[in-house]
Write a structure and sequence with these properties.
alpha+beta; 247 residues; elongated; six-stranded mixed beta sheet
Length: 247
Amino acid sequence: MNSIENEYCVIHTRSGKTYTGTILTTQPSVHVYDDARTFSREEAHMEVRIDELVDSADDVKKLGIAVGDFVSFDSRAVITPSGYIKSRHLDDKASVAALFGVLESMKREGWKPRFNVKILISNYEEVGHGAAYIPSDIKELIAVDMGCIGDDLSCKETDVSICAKDSSGPYDYEMTGRLIELAQAEGIPYAVDVYPHYGSDASAALSAGSNIRAALIGPGVHASHAMERTHKQAVLNTTKLLAAYVK
């Protein structure tokens, strides 16, 4: 909640109408509330200030806003001259960009993967069950997510992260080892890390009972689920490692 306070947002109603607003605490002004600075930023104390002439719950309902409507906020995406990509929701849009990079490379350079490859972009990865179903002919699954950055972690914003283990347990030893070998052979900057507060589409597929081997890679992303940042090099390095593996 600290990371989304004061963000502009959009309310999406079931009828298709949208309304703008701002995400604030219920005590947002230091000129009014004694404890505005120290007020707890938890969900119960947050609200959306709607940019409409409303004074009551009934007024809001008349707009068509109801329980279960989605609220989104601006990604504020910026690509700096130095190659940094600053944006919300880089987890996992940066990884989607890497997948598109693989497809673009295949088209431009005329190469084909060694085996049949299926690309699945799941809408529910952040909820935790995005790849609970996968086609039955898949034998290996590489989740393309993100690499975390912080204390006790070796990943940088220019690296492709290879995750050895997350909250769901270790990833396939052979696949992970192969990815490490390929990164070393191709001279791709990489890091191997363990993410104890993290899960992926591969986690969901394994939990659902899929008979697969699974691995997890992705570009290094700083400040995940806040104002995230990565670098073009990390996206490209993820693309290169994926291409090397499927070749």
